[in-house]
Amino acid sequence: METNIKIIGKISKIDDLKFRAKVIPFECKYCGRIFKIPQSSNFFKKTTPGPCVCGKKDFSEILEIITSEDIIEHQKGEIEIYNGLPRKFGIKKIPIIFENGLVNKNDVGETVELDGILSIYSVPKVNMDVFKKFVLNVKGYKKIVSG
Questions:
Q1: Among candidates 89, 91, 135, which has minimal Cα distance to 114?
Q2: Which among 75, 100, 129, 147 is least buried, having the fewest CB atoms inside 10 angstroms?
Q3: Where does 22-129 show beta strands of DSSP type E?
Q4: Are residues 41 and 90 in the same domain?
Q5: How many domains does the chain have?
């Protein structure tokens, strides 16, 4: 489930700048056919090709042919929420993801207003319970200066 939200909070963690591909080329190890597979915005799962036309499903990534246009800069972090997140979830901190023009602009301890898409994943636990995993993909932000 995804929903657009606006939250205000303090950045409590920022990771180093990383890169991910929008499209990853895969080569069939049997026939050599190349498939360019678009990647989703889900940072937790890589999309791979289905079976090749030759019937095999054994691929290798060809990372050396990825161009700079195929790369997304991103930074993961965490925000301590002051307000704006639906209180029914009872959450005080959530992971955040900054991409492209929003990377390297925030520091730990800054109070910010973030606009973005909140993704909620249901993740099964070992004892058959289900818990929710939340991630905010930031689309816009504004620093709040306390005065």
A1: 135
A2: 147
A3: 23-28, 34-38, 59-61, 71-83, 93-99, 111-124
A4: no
A5: 2
Task: Provide the residue range defining the domain that includes 91.
Answer: 2-18+74-143
Taking alpha carbons only, the member of 92, 103, 98, 127 closest to residue 7 is 92
Nearest to 75 by CA among 147, 144, 136: 136
Nearest to 56 by CA among 45, 48, 64: 48
Q: Residues with Cβ < 8 Å from 47, sequence gap 6 or more? A: 24, 37, 38, 39, 40
3-state helix, strand, coil in the chain (%, to 5): 10, 55, 40
> 44 and 112: one domain?
no
Report pLDDT for 67. 75
